[in-house]
Amino acid sequence: MTIKVALVGAGAFGIKHLDGIRNIRDVEVISLVGRDLAKTQEVAQKYGIPHVASDLKESLAIKELDAVILCTPTQMHAAQAQQCMLAGKHVQVEIPLADSFEGAQAVAALQLQTGLVAMVGHTRRFNPSHQYVHKKVTAGEFNIQQMDVQTYFFRRTNTNALGEPRSWTDHLLWHHAAHTVDLFAYQAGEIVQAQAMQGPTHPVLGIAMDMSIQLRSQSGAICTLSLSFNNDGPLGTFFRYIGDNATYIARYDDLVRSDSKLGEVTVDVSKVDVSMNGIELQDREFFAAIREGREPNSSVHQVLPCYRVLHQLEQQLAQQGL
Known about the structure:
Layout: E1 3-8, H1 12-21, E2 27-33, H2 37-47, E3 51-53, H3 56-60, E4 67-70, H4 77-86, E5 90-94, H5 101-114, E6 118-121, H6 128-138, E7 144-152, H7 172-188, E8 191-198, E9 210-217, E10 222-228, E11 236-243, E12 247-251, E13 254-259, E14 263-266, H8 278-292, H9 300-320
Parallel strand pairs: 1-2, 1-4, 2-3, 4-5, 5-6, 7-10
Antiparallel strand pairs: 7-11, 8-9, 9-10, 11-12, 12-13, 13-14
């Protein structure tokens, strides 16, 4: 059976999903939804997608549609995820699930009512580099003592990952910190303590441009996360795993073992999974869960604790009055 999919959001991340889905058998994107209809039609033509719309409701009305992938602005995620499930469609929503804990809880509650597959794009769970570490942890071969994570961008104007103008404002806490908060819990156990500080608010964008977060898990492991939209290179997210018998550094899909004598030694993660593309692996899990009628890795329920922690941190930052 071919799973028929609508992809909502023809921007930078929507295109990454389209590229990944090209490598997955028996999955067909039959509808593409975008705010800019002309641009959306251009992308649809490139990828051979027969239906184009500017309103999600139009795609949800397609009878043969099975599932939806949402790559839309953060503020729309929770409402659109619920809209998809109410229409009887499985849904994968790009990170973050919501921009509030209340919104995340509402999506999780509706998933229980409908029984549909509802998954969140916490891609770090699927990157081969982090999968490698996770397998070491679950096998009892590596115990994390500390994670040191840097999430750095140079984004003083409202632009997306392609440097194009964005119709909405990104957020360090609810978007970028969500990746690491969830990954830390996934690798080191439930988070039992969290605290945050942030720098000045940008006068135009209205968001904090710098943030520092500290976490502690039930295992005793700690995590220090530094985030910035002010950093002028290198850009991206860099993870250092400090463990009881090794130190690993992950840069997206690449992994090295740090050695005081040998320096950085490349770890071959090419055989960890069927692809080196984290987005593709994430999509493969979504479609496999639909076919097998099971809960996916990174389901709304599995990631809900992450959003509880983000809510706690947001409350702390509000009390700081910055």
